[in-house]
Amino acid sequence: MKIKFLTIFIAATSLFLASCGEYDNFDAPEFTLSGKVVYQNKPLGVRNNGPRFELWQDGYALRSPIYVYMNQDGSFSAKLFAGQYKLTRMADAPWLQQATDTIRVNVTGDTNLDVPVTPYFNITNETFAKSGNTISANFVVNKVVQTANVELVRLYLGKSILTDQVLRDVRVDGNVSSLVFGSPTTLSADIPDNLKTLDFIYARVGVKATVAGEYVYSQVQKIALK
Amino acid sequence: MKKIYIAFALFIGLTMNSCKHDDWFYRESKNTISDEQLWNDPNLITSLLANYYNRLPSLHGVFNTGGMTEIDDAMWSGTRDQNGRNDFQYGSDYGRYWDYGLIRDLNLSLENINTLGVKLTPAQKSLFIGEMRFIRAFVYFEMVKRMGGVPLVTKQLIYDFSGDPTPLQVPRAKESEVYDFIYKELEEIKADLAANNSIKTRANRYTALALESRAMLYAASIAKYNSLMAAPISTPGGEVGIPASMATDYYNKSLTASKEIIAGPYALYNENADKGANFYDMLNKKPVSEVIFAKDFALGTKVHRFTYDNIVKSMTEDNEASSAISPSLSLVESFNYLDGSKGTLKDKDANGNYITYTNPADIFANKDARLFGTVIYPGTSFKNSPVRMQAGVAVYNNGSYQLTTSAVLGANYTDGQVWTGFDGPKDDAVDVSNTGFYIRKMVSDAPAASTRGTSAVNWWPWFRLGEIYLNAAEAAFELGRPEGLGYVNSVRARAGFPANSISVLTNDIIRNERRVELAFEDHRYFDLKRWRIAHIVWDGTETDPNAVVMGLYSYRVVRPGHQDNGKYIYARVRPTRFRRARLFRMTNYYSSIAQDVLNGNPKIVRNPFQ
Question: What percent of chain B is helix, strand and coil (3-state, nearest 5)?
Answer without folding.
Answer: 40, 10, 50
